[in-house]
Amino acid sequence: MTRLLVLEGDGIGPEIVAATCDVLAVLDARFNLGLIVERAEIGFPALAAHGTTIPDAVIARALEADGVILGPVSHNAYPPVSEGGLNPSGVLRKRLDLYANIRPARTPEGLGGRAPVDLVVVRENTEGFYADRNMAEGSGEFLPEPGMALAIRKITAKASRRIAQSAFALAETRPARRVTVVHKANVLRLSDGLFLDEVRKVAADHPEITVDEMLVDAAAAHLVRAPERFDVIVTTNMFGDILSDLASELAGSLGLGGSLNAGETRAMAQAQHGSAPDIAGTGAANPGSLIASVAMLLHWLAGRGGADSFARAGAATDAALAVALADPAARTPDIGGTGTTRAMTDRVIQALGSD
């Protein structure tokens, strides 16, 4: 049996999580996955009930699960950390040591007018400029006096090396077999210099992979002008966050951007976008990102000793989502369709039963 912990989150989180769980139930029945799906509260509901947006008991359950499905959270609207307003995403990435954030961007067929994007951003997930992830205790951002804010950026050889290893392992499975290392070592000479040195060491062990090095500003420009030149991008936390959003929008929509947070023994599927409270409850939320993320989780489980049925379920999900995206009546408004969350979900489920 495989235990999955489902965390709905805030805003549109409950809607797209419910849609994704409906798809997952069909996959479980069709491929005999033996899933045990459990649920726990995070975000504003947890804050109201427990005084924190992510209780310790939820973290403990996540550590015991085979995989986690995380809905979007409204952490920008949370109270200060001292009042329980922790970012569940950051906490789980750090506590579960989910050091690799894998974000594919591929232009779906049938949308029209989109750039020919087919790349993956492999983003370091546990340190960098993110103040909630780079200290053992406390925050890496602080205010010594009014009018002065300081932040610490942490880059380590260990984290740089293992994210590079993830990127090169992924590149070996793709036809182009190309890795672009994105950095800003011309300015951040020590921190990005350390990152770049560690990636170069890993690259030396993979002579069959073509390697480019590119400054982050140039990478952003080339993504817009010629996204087809990229295959696998490996970079630090904040640069990867920005570039992966750009790539997903070029390919179609953040609403389609799958995202897997992976470590050595644990993984978490998470929609690439935010909680979009302005459309919560309207039926307009695109469930595609979280459905695609769960497909990635199924592939990850298959690669970590799971049955072949998990790989087949992941592939079937990818194919069914492609069918739904080709149907304007099923697509949600953010990608030029007239459908609703429910319509798109139903079309994915229908496609799963017809292939």
Automatic annotation (TrEMBL):
Pfam families cross-referenced by the UniProt entry: Iso_dh
Gene3D superfamilies: Isopropylmalate Dehydrogenase
InterPro entries: IsoCit/isopropylmalate_DH_CS, IsoPropMal-DH-like_dom
UniProt GO molecular function: homoisocitrate dehydrogenase activity; isocitrate dehydrogenase (NAD+) activity; magnesium ion binding; NAD binding
Domain of life: Bacteria
GO biological process terms held by the UniProt record: isocitrate metabolic process; tricarboxylic acid cycle
SUPFAM superfamilies linked to this entry: Isocitrate/Isopropylmalate dehydrogenase-like
Enzyme Commission numbers on file: 1.1.1.87
Keywords: Oxidoreductase
Domain Isopropylmalate dehydrogenase-like: start-end pairs: 3-348
Keyword hit for Oxidoreductase: yes
Family: Belongs to the isocitrate and isopropylmalate dehydrogenases family.
Entry protein name: Homoisocitrate dehydrogenase
Organism: Antarctobacter heliothermus
Gene: hicd
